[in-house]
Specification:
The chain has 13 helices and four strands. By secondary structure, the chain is mainly alpha-helical.
């Protein structure tokens, strides 16, 4: 089996926390040329713009959140509904790429954000992750809960990750003004649970299961900087397993014989002679990758699994011991 960041994360979740993640089905992108609607279309068809630190985020979400940040002291923001006739008019204009948010009512724009998330053909949190997220939230130890949720957020497709990360960062800023708007992180999580983690059936609508969904979102709203960050212990495991797997592949690879004589440089010859005695260092492996003689240590999972390297930032959580500081995930 090919060792990848995703494999190591899922292995760590299962062995350490007893959480099994359902495999993601490979779904073809349904990119439709010429369609520029905002609501009710797949995320890949929504117009997006690049935001440093977050990646590609839907333009509507950026405009709506920026608009509401200037009005974040509005009492009951996201809890009080907007006017249905006004909301319908705004949706029609937005689907036709007409700028209309600058004169809109805050409650109407807040309702539109919830509708945007709720009307996506597939939830921003893929259904394959829902059970694992709830199991992570149910862990008895606070540090285990936080670490498991961090790891699960790293398994999100890039489009979903960028959108959720931007949204949680925005909601965190809204909750910081709860003395004025009365919307705490718990209140915001309760409002957004049906939009981001919708229950798939009646069995999942029990009070206990709904509470877990709210707590998952509350964790991410209160700690947006943890979203998509892999703990250092897991990063070390990734490097070890990938290096071991690479060396194993090198031993199994049959040697190619050529009819012509190959002149080896001094650097190459010394590396080959010392290979059976000393395990190559990371720097030596990188040199091999650059020269084309060896594969790169890091196996990129592509945009469908991991966001840009800028999205994985070093973060030092307050409640984490000094030897458990987070390390950002690297991509080639």
């Amino acid at each position: 089996m090919k060792v990848t960041n995703s494999n190591v994360i899922q292995f760590h979740l299962e062995v350490i926390y007893g959480i099994t993640v359902k495999s993601f089905e490979k779904k073809k992108e349904r990119l439709v040329i010429g369609v520029s609607k905002v609501f009710g279309v797949p995320l890949e068809n929504v117009p997006r713009q690049y935001i440093p630190e977050f990646g590609l985020v839907p333009c509507f979400l950026v405009d709506a959140c920026s608009f509401l940040l200037e009005r974040a002291r509005t009492v009951g923001l996201f809890r009080k509904p907007g006017s249905l006739p006004r909301i319908k008019t705004l949706k029609d204009k937005l689907n036709c790429q007409e700028g209309c948010l600058s004169t809109a009512h805050p409650y109407d724009v807040a309702t539109l954000i919830k509708q945007f998330c709720r009307e996506l053909p597939e939830p921003l949190f893929p259904t394959e992750l829902h059970t694992a997220l709830l199991e992570a939230q149910a862990l008895p130890n606070l540090q285990d809960r936080t670490s498991a949720l961090q790891l699960l957020s790293c398994l999100l497709p890039a489009r979903n990750f960028s959108c959720l990360h931007y949204l949680f960062d925005f909601l965190c800023k809204v909750s910081q003004r709860c003395t004025d708007n009365l919307m705490t992180s718990s209140n915001l999580a309760t409002v957004f649970a049906p939009c981001l983690l919708p229950p798939p059936n009646k069995a999942e609508m029990s009070e206990g299961r709904l509470e877990l969904r709210v707590l998952v979102l509350r964790t991410f709203i209160e700690n947006p900087d943890l979203f998509g960050v892999i703990p250092k212990a897991v990063m070390d495991s990734m490097e070890f397993l990938m290096n071991f797997h690479l060396l194993k592949d090198e031993k199994r690879r049959p040697k190619k014989r050529h009819s012509f004589k190959v002149m080896q440089s001094g650097k190459t010859a010394s590396w080959i002679q010392g290979r059976s005695k000393v395990r190559p260092t990371v720097s030596e492996q990188n040199q091999g990758s650059i020269s084309g003689e060896r594969k790169s240590l890091r196996r990129s999972l592509g945009l469908e699994t991991f966001p840009n390297v800028q999205l994985f930032r070093t973060f030092m959580p307050f409640a984490v011991p000094p030897n458990m500081h987070a390390r950002p995930c690297k991509r080639d």
